[in-house]
Amino acid sequence: MQSTEDRPVTTAEERSPYWSPRTARARFRAGLTGPTAGVAAGHTQANLIAVPADWAYEMLLFCQRNPKPCPVLDVTDAGSPTTVLAEGADLRTDLPRYRVWQDGELVDEPTDVRAYWRDDLVAFLIGCSFTFEWGLVRAGVPIRHVEQGRNVPMYITDRPCRPAGRLSGPMVVSMRPVPPRRLGAAIKESSLLPAVHGGPVHCGDPAGLGIADLGRPDFGDPVTVEEGEIPVFWACGVTPQAAVMASRPPFALTHAPGQMFLTDARDEQYRLVGID
Amino acid sequence: MQSTEDRPVTTAEERSPYWSPRTARARFRAGLTGPTAGVAAGHTQANLIAVPADWAYEMLLFCQRNPKPCPVLDVTDAGSPTTVLAEGADLRTDLPRYRVWQDGELVDEPTDVRAYWRDDLVAFLIGCSFTFEWGLVRAGVPIRHVEQGRNVPMYITDRPCRPAGRLSGPMVVSMRPVPPRRLGAAIKESSLLPAVHGGPVHCGDPAGLGIADLGRPDFGDPVTVEEGEIPVFWACGVTPQAAVMASRPPFALTHAPGQMFLTDARDEQYRLVGID
Fold this sequence. Notes:
The structure is a homodimer. Chain A starts with 20 loop residues before the first helix and ends in a 6-residue tail after the last helix. Chain A has helices at about 20-30, 55-65, 135-140, 145, 185-190, 240-245, 265-270, and strands at about 45-50, 70-75, 100, 105-110, 120-125, 155-160, 170-180, 200-205, 230-235, 250-255, 260-265. By secondary structure, chain A is an alpha+beta fold. In chain A, the strands form 2 sheets. In chain A, strands 1, 2, 3, 4, 5, 10 and 11 form a 7-stranded antiparallel sheet that branches. In chain A, strands 6-7-9-8 form a 4-stranded antiparallel sheet, covered by helices on one side. In chain A, about 20% of the residues lie in helices and about 25% in strands. The interface between A and B is medium-sized, with 22 and 22 residues. Chains A, B: Belongs to the D-glutamate cyclase family.
């Protein structure tokens, strides 16, 4: 589904873990595109989906009913492109790349959606697994897609989400290869952050999720799975896009998969506390 | 605010931790009333608030914006008194006691709300801290209100919730006295269950939440705080009722504080996994 046009137009070296979220948003606003994995270390990244107000209740309910793929971090007031999660940010310009959907069909992938914005749009910011990659790194888990300068691989699974009104669709997952000796740490680290998908939904054989070929992701790029590594699958915030594709609301705006919104929130804010 | 009429009409001994949720619901349907703390060990209890469909989006958004007091476990389809959380249950009859609200005023406290039910009502089931009391007991924390055969004390705090459209109001908390040597365990046990309010919002001096007198709770009954014990405050699912009182929607149905809905869900389903 993704083509080479979604490959980074800049190299991984040009995007930095040392950027503040504000700097990252400014660079993306100025036209920089590409995956945001590895950018602005320790800051929470978010998926974006904006729908017309008459679809907002069903989208919020869809998220409530499917909290693993759709953990809601913020919901904007209708028409407002601002969020409490990032001071001074404009959701219409500050992501690297967007997708525009009409009747469930992808019609454009601009770097700015001001021309598409509507006064009745309600935007949902949904947790992203890029957030816990810093914890994985600290736990000794390689982040293969960052190592390889690629977008994380994402797959449409055979697991249906629980529908909400007119919205239904399959769960989407992201995949990271994990050495068996690091599997416990990877599960623990991600489980501590349920607001960004929490622990994995599946480990091992991709067929367990109805995924036929790890080498052909539905979104993003394939990555190398080394001998002995276990593919580990986390629920993914691209799931609402799959619901848009399946349920065909008249209009929706989303981020381009892997090209997220950088919030000012720190991962620690979402980390469970009081646990040894 | 609570009077003696809300004291248990049966003794604690007449309600049993050994009941299945189905048995508990049948007893309450048959007319038994009183607090549900200590009933149906290991099963998830839920707060109820039902509002007309044209308030449902704001209620769901209010819950999303205030996840500590309002962790949503299920949302029903408009008019339906059933939930995926309890097979064969009827939300109109299966709670011990209800509250009926008109324009933000409490107008009735029946044991059955079939006469008040409307086809446009959307019911929200919200996690309840009674759920993690079993974990507290295992961790050596006394559950004073159960020991004393009373309803848990609940207090309206000076902490405002984040508003959602027409809905706003203060956070409500429940209080349990905890011996200092058990405080770590109490925090850990409850933190593992974020779907039922998670870790406490405050420990110690009640003035930190604007609570003037622990002996005069806004809902439920006072309990004894022994010498040296620390009052520990958890966010409470009565918070939506405080929002109803403050925001005055034309109509709402809720449970009576402390008299919860017993679901078939087991606490383990909501417990974070993969954490040492």
